[in-house]
Amino acid sequence: MKLYYSATSPYVRKVMACAIARGLEGRISLHNSNPHASPADLLADNPTSKVPCLVADDGISLYDSPVICEFLDSLGDAPPLFPAAGAARWRALKFQAMGDGILDAAVPCRGELGRPKEDARDAAILRYKAAMSRTVDALEADVPHRHVDIGSIAVACALGYLDFRYGADRWRDGHPKLSAWYEAFLQNPCISRTVPKD
Ligand SMILES: N[C@@H](CCC(=O)N[C@@H](CS)C(=O)NCC(=O)O)C(=O)O
């Protein structure tokens, strides 16, 4: 399988954490790509020009990260990361949406912070930061479980991105339960081995 990736993408990290958790890392060849430059090979496999994009062994190209992670869960016979049914499934998918939701605000917010100051930019930044902050508050009120599944992986990757791009400790203020959960969850190899570095 071929994975279009960029080294610091938190969505790519999520995919790699799933691959490590399921023992599939050795089956993935990494293909470095800059999605913002819209390279022809990435566009041929992903018209939205985003990473991650996975090309499976049968040639099908898959995006975005929730789809790729669920595809990886269909390979091999390691314990599943996507609970099959019932409350456990909906809870895991909800935590995935919360982690991805933090990233869907935090990633473009960085882009806005790099633009010249003007009213529309400042309004967008406020809106992104409010979404990040509300979601971290909601996670403090209902902390993910300790075991590794798609929900806990997604939340850990999102909090790791906040540490990486917004300064360690900021989200931890006023969120002691979530901080304790994160410190414990960091011990899992799929998370400790994928910590982003510049
Ligand atoms: N919802 C997508 C988001 C992927 C995404 O936004 N990736 C960023 C890199 S962190 C990207 O490729 N951005 C390029 C662009 O927006 O043009 C997923 O879960 O995979």
Description:
With 198 residues, the protein is an alpha+beta fold. It folds into 2 domains: 2-73, Glutaredoxin; 86-192, Up-down Bundle (Glutathione S-transferase Yfyf (Class Pi), Chain A, domain 2), CATH 1.20.1050. It is 55% helix and 7% strand. The chain has 8 helices and 4 strands. It has a 4-stranded mixed β-sheet. The longest helix has 28 residues, at 86-113.
- Name the assembly state: single chain
Into which percent range does the helicity of residues fall? 55-70%
The Rg value, from CA coordinates, equals 17 Å
Please report the total strand number as a whole number: 4
On the 0-100 scale, what is the average pLDDT?
97
Shape: globular
> What is the annotated CATH architecture of the largest domain?
Up-down Bundle
Q: What's the main sheet like?
A: 4 strands, mixed
Strand percentage, roughly? Answer: 5-15%
Given as residue ranges, the uncertain stretches (5+ residues, pLDDT < 50) are none
Question: How many domains is the backbone divided into?
Answer: 2
How far apart, in Å, are the first and last alpha carbons? 26 Å
Order of helices and strands: EHEHEEHHHHHH
CATH class value of the largest domain: Mainly Alpha
The largest beta-sheet arranges its strands as 2-1-3-4
Instruction: Quickly count the helices.
Output: 8
Identify the bound ligands. glutathione
- Structural class by sheet pairing and helices: alpha+beta
CATH topology of the largest domain: Glutathione S-transferase Yfyf (Class Pi), Chain A, domain 2
